[in-house]
């Protein structure tokens, strides 16, 4: 699809590596940890973790994303083009100290049953006392306050703008995520539109899913600076242990 092909080219401009996020990912990691990055995008965090001495595997469904990731840090990370729901087969027999899935990627799965299965697979792939970290949009906030958009990402110096709108469907408990990527080329704007259905998984539901999958010590945060989670924070970040 043209939208994702063009987005992959500018992904690191639209979503640059954030040092607060990297620092949060590194918290409590032991030296030479074995790490799995699900839906790794262009691999910025996977590469940064590998450069800190960790052993990192990473998967993404987008071929363009994986190609860019390999070009950036193929010597550091074992990148694989794969659906994250198939990761148990892709890295058969592998065990990890830490598995993370950020960037609102979890809710892109087709249904809640697939989310539950993925969470169980992640649990199975963890070493004893291993941990996971998930980050999604705070759908408690979206639903309670009828939020219909996220702040536009404007990279004026690069001629880029990423517009993000939500339409919540109460019957299906999903949202239509409508996006527009605006690229300025030779003084003219090129607009690429896309719409994808996302699972509007709220905090209590996700906690219940994690408990069902066998996790313990579940902690909620409102962002990667470790702020307290509530129904007004933009993000939901969850850490849990095996």
UniProtKB/TrEMBL annotation:
BP-aspect Gene Ontology terms: methylation
Any one Gene Ontology molecular-function term assigned to this protein's record: methyltransferase activity
Coiled-coil zones: none
The Methyltransferase domain, residue ranges: 35-130
Keyword Lyase attributed: no
A Pfam family matched in the record: Methyltransf_25
Superkingdom assignment: Bacteria
Stated name of the protein: SAM-dependent methyltransferase
């Amino acid at each position: 699809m043209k939208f994702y092909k063009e987005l992959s080219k500018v992904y690191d401009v639209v979503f640059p590596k954030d040092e607060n996020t990297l620092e949060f990912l590194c918290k409590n990691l032991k030296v030479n940890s074995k790490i799995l990055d699900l839906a790794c995008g262009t691999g910025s965090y996977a590469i940064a973790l590998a450069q800190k001495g960790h052993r990192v595997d990473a998967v993404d469904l987008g071929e363009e994303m994986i190609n860019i990731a390999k070009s950036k840090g193929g010597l550091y990370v074992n990148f694989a083009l794969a659906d994250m729901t198939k990761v148990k087969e892709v890295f058969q027999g592998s065990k990890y100290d830490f598995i993370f899935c950020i960037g609102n990627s979890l809710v892109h799965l087709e249904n809640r049953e697939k989310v539950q299965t993925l969470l169980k697979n992640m649990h199975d792939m963890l070493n004893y006392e291993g941990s996971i970290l998930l980050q999604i949009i705070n759908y408690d906030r979206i639903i309670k306050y009828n939020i219909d958009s996220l702040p536009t990402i404007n990279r004026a110096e690069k001629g880029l703008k990423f517009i993000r709108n939500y339409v919540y469907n109460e019957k299906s408990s999903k949202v239509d995520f409508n996006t527009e990527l605006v690229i300025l080329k030779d003084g003219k704007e090129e607009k690429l539109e896309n719409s994808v259905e996302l699972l509007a998984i709220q905090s209590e539901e996700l906690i219940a899913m994690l408990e069902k999958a066998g996790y313990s010590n579940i902690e909620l945060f409102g962002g990667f600076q470790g702020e307290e989670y509530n129904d007004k924070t933009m993000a939901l970040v969850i850490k849990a242990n095996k």
